[in-house]
Structures are given as C-alpha cells and as structure tokens.
Amino acid sequence: MALASGEAKNCPPSAEREDLAESSTLSASSFPEYRHEVKQVWNHNSAYWDSYMGEGNDFVNVLCWPAIEELLEIEPGQMVLDIACGNGLTSRRLGRLGARVIAFDVAEEMIRFAKQRSSDEDGDIQFHVLDASDESGLERICKERIDAALSNMALFDMAEIEPVFRTLHRLLKPGGCFVFSMMHPCFNQAHSALFCEREEVDGEEVTTYGVRVAGYMTPTMHKGRALAGQPLPQPYFHRPLHALLSIGLEAGFVLTGIEERAFPASHPPGRQDVSWGPNFSEIPPVIIFRMLRP
To answer: What is the pLDDT of residues 254-279, one digit of tens each?
Structure first.
C-alpha cells in the first residue's frame, strides 16, 4: 500500500521519518521478535491509515498497479491470494478483474475496514485475519490450489517472510506466480535520504536531485512514521536484494519478471521539491518482482 508522493508508508521523507530503533548487525533476514508488535501497531493505526489511503493514490495508480496487473496476467475465474491486503484496495481491483480472491491481513481492524469498503460489485472476495508467517493458517484458508498470489507493498512490514515463500510454493499450481511490490531496497529504505543540490556552472544555476545511501548490505529493523500524524511508528524490515531473492529461490521459485518504477518527469510535482515525484524520475522508489512456481 502507498500514499501520495513523499507521504507514503513506503517512502517517508527523512524529515518526517522517525528512526526510533535499529537492530544490531545481523546476518539473518528474520526478526521474529517483532511479530507481535507489527500486529499491535497496524491495529492501532488502521483507522488513520484507511482514512488517508482510501482506494489508492499516485504510488498505487502510477507505480505499482500497472506493473502488478501486467505481471499477474489475471484471467477471469482464477484463484488469487492477496497477502497483507490492508484495507482491501488491491483485493477489490483483483475481484473486478474477475479473479476469485482470498485476502488476509494480520490486523483485525484492517480487515474490518476492508469488509466495510467492499461490495458485491467488487467480485468474489473472502477476507481473513491471519499472520503471513502462519503456514498452517495459510493452508487452511486456501482450500484449493491457487493460480497466483500478490503482496503489494507489504513484505518490508513483515518480521518473517521465509514462511510465506515456503507455503506459497506448496499452494500455487505448477506455473502459478507470486508477484510482490516493495520499496526499492537500494534507494528507498531506512539508510537512504533524498537530497537536492544547487550550484553555479558556467554562470547558470544547476539543480541536482539524488539519493544518498549510507547502508544496504545488512538486514536491519527500524521504526518509522509513514504518515505525518500517524499515531504509532511501525517496524520496517530492510533486506538487500540478494537476501530477499535468495529466500524465494531457495523455496523453489524461478524469477521471471522485474519492474523498477519511477515517477515520470511529466508527473505533477509533490508538495516538496525533495519528495518522490518528477524531480526523481531517474531513480525508482518501487520495485516489483514476479516469481514462478515451476
């Protein structure tokens, strides 16, 4: 899930982000000690998040959803699992494409809002409260093999992602795919910061926009406020690309698609110069993957 340019859960500008805690150097990519806190925080923030998010924004409509729809290639009647569905905005989009949707989130309050926002016009959607690391729970809600799975901007909110990949490999039909979008771990993470520099070159003022990265290789946890005014900061879990993709590959998946998405230079500017938007058209804040179950 994501919000307006520069204000999204997945892209808090450094001025708005609160780094309240960070793990010591770790070699593993799992943080099981934060599972309970993740659920508590998202239940507490759900009303604020739902009122701000609604049915999507520029991050969803411009960056994430076009790539997701292309990579998933949904056909009417297919069974699709929507992982960490939040208020159900992607579930409803999948349902309107004709998919039969099984959607779940760890936060009971998020599922309450998802049900309130959904109607018969959104298609066949079943909502459940479930922790994505609960392998037996995932098998219980998927009573038949599924055609595809989606996780939109959520894996970096999960303390553990290994169980998701393991279980999906068992639940997906041969040839089924798992598409997941996320903050780009190279450019849009706890140890990166957007910058703007102005200098005079040959008598002309030149402005350069870019991203400084101070850490990347080590998986870490930090806490940040995604939205100005958000009641509680939530844990974010940074995993470098090699760690993230290795989890899927070791589970038996094959990587078959990658989309790096940046706002085009023609996109309307955000509220600040230094926020994700047209000034950063050469730097992708979002990356989307498709992994296939052979």
So the answer is: 999 999 999 999 999 877 888 999 99
